[in-house]
Amino acid sequence: MRKSFLVALAVSSAIFFSCAIDPEVVRIWGGDVSVPELLSLEVVSETGLVARFSRPVSLTVASVAIPGTATADSGDEVLDVSWGYADDGKTVELSVSRNPGIGVRAVLSGTVEDERGNTLTFAFPYTGWNDRVPDMVINEVRVSYSKPKVEYVELFMLSDGNLGGVKIENPRNAKNPSYEFPSAEVRAGEYVVWHVRSVEEGLVDEIGAADASGGTEARIDARDFWSDFSSSPLKADNALLLRARKGGPIVDALLLSSGTLADWPTDEVRAAAKEAFESGAWQTGAGIGDAASSFGASPTRTVGRDSLSTDTDGPGDWAVCATSKCSPGAVNAAR
Ligand SMILES: [Ca+2]
Asked: What is the domain class of 136-320 according to CATH?
């Protein structure tokens, strides 16, 4: 008795819904009530940004705020933004009234609406365009750790410029796959060291004076920057990329192999090695067999470029130095 009542109710419900509800509404109830997504934001020039959304949208309002510029009276500085659309309707090309500054972190905020009236309000950070990226090379790498000797990547500056927004990409570190330099003026001939751990007191990023930081290996005549990563943050089998900016061109690359693996250990490293080779930043090939050798590297035996060689963007430029000949922030030991 009770069962047949339920069946009757179910049947009548089905009839009711099938008659009463517009198919379009049912489709929306079926899962189409979703907001558009902001998939990426690319900085393409001094004032140009490109935002890509998951579906065609109209941008109704947008502005750029520069956090950290707040005063008691004014709040964060806010810049005006104008915009247009690419043919696909999903890509919005924005023009900001000015560059927030080389390497300055800013936030694009706005609201978009799709054709159904679903709206997305977003706030997306970006780094101000750097038109003065120096010419530079990766010069030395320490891939192991013995406190207080931490892993590092040393760069050598071939021209004057500013490091703001320059990225070191480290695909073996899934948790922290890249480091972005803050704005700092550099001169040709300077050594820049990104120390990957912070295990001492008094460590500061040297965005101004090169002698500001403490730390056993922070030289007064080199420019030191610090992260606080752990768990073997650089590895002996890796493909490091030095990139002018997020999503920008590769300035230099270093492929490293300990000689113990037949192939790259992860897809991320394989992809980075491929990109290094295809960009011309690494000349000999994209396989682990085409990499420079890190065999025998230790906390005092680093992998260094031969300072006297020409830069061939290949393994022949590189060698593991003798015991205790590591040289963070200074010229590499002669071979
Ligand atoms: Ca060195």
From this structure: mainly beta
CA 263 / ligand 1 centre spacing (Å):
29
Q: Which amino acid is at 142?
A: R
**Cα 335 to ligand 1 centre (Å):** 13
Amino acid identity, residue 322? A
Query: Average per-residue pLDDT in the chain?
Result: 89
Q: Quick one: what percent of the chain has pLDDT higher than 90?
A: 81
- Classified by CATH at the fold level, domain 38-127 comes out as Immunoglobulin-like (2.60.40)
Q: Is the dihedral of CA 242, 246, 149, 331 positive or negative?
A: positive
Dihedral (Cα; 21, 24, 28, 34), 10-degree rounding: -150
Per-residue pLDDT reduced to its tens digit, 285-331? 999 999 999 999 999 999 999 876 778 999 999 999 999 999 999 99
**What values do phi and psi take at 226, rounded to 5?**
-135, 135
Distance CA 283, CA 256 (A): 14
pLDDT at 3 over 90: no
Please tell me the distance from the alpha carbon of residue 41 to that of residue 240, in angstroms, as a whole number: 24
74-82 long-range Cβ contacts below 8 angstroms, 24+ apart: 79/106, 81/108, 81/110
Q: In what helix (H) or strand (E) does residue 19 lie, and over which residues does it extend? A: helix 2-20
* Residues linked to residue 154 through DSSP beta bridges, in sequence order: 140, 193
Near ion ligand 1, which residues have CB within 5 Å? 140, 154, 327, 332
Q: Give 13-44 pLDDT, tens digit per residue.
A: 333 444 444 444 444 454 556 889 999 999 99
Q: What end-to-end distance do the CA atoms of the chain give, in Å?
A: 94
Q: pLDDT: is 51 or 23 the higher one?
A: 51
Q: What is the pLDDT of residue 62?
A: 97
Measured in Å, residue 320 CA sits from the centre of ligand 1 at 12
Range(s) for CATH 2.60.40.10 in the chain?
Answer: 38-127
